[in-house]
Write the structure tokens for this entry.
Amino acid sequence: MRKKEEVLEKFHELRVLKLRERKERFLGRYPRNCFFNCRLRVKGNSVIGFCQSPVILQALGSRLAICNEDDNAKKCRVFQCKNTEERVEKEFDEILRSPARCGQEYSKLAMLIWFLQDFSPITRTKRFGCVLLDILKSICRLFSFKWW
């Protein structure tokens, strides 16, 4: 059986790797990350991205500009990423806090989190007792008009 320190080290290593991949995916110069790109579903299962930048539309002299290719986004002079690094990190942490989402998107991380929780000194019955005690305290405060 692995030691907690080994698993914790692997967890941190994998977390850094997955966060880096997520940042590359959501902060890279891709049409789906552009602030001006509007993605619309067309007949069938296809999705097409349309550029809504006034600078591009004026330069083309058209009301429609299709922007689906990664090369277009990499060469675009008005590209603005709609995601920020802080937002991507925050969403990543929220995913890790949600067992269902974490299991769907990052199954290896979910497994390591589950394994590390077995080492925590608080058991399920103790946690249930704490929750029950908090509920009872809230009810007592409610009936005794101690709302503040």
Observations:
- The radius of gyration is 24 Å.
- The longest strand covers residues 37-41.
- Residues 4-121 form one domain.
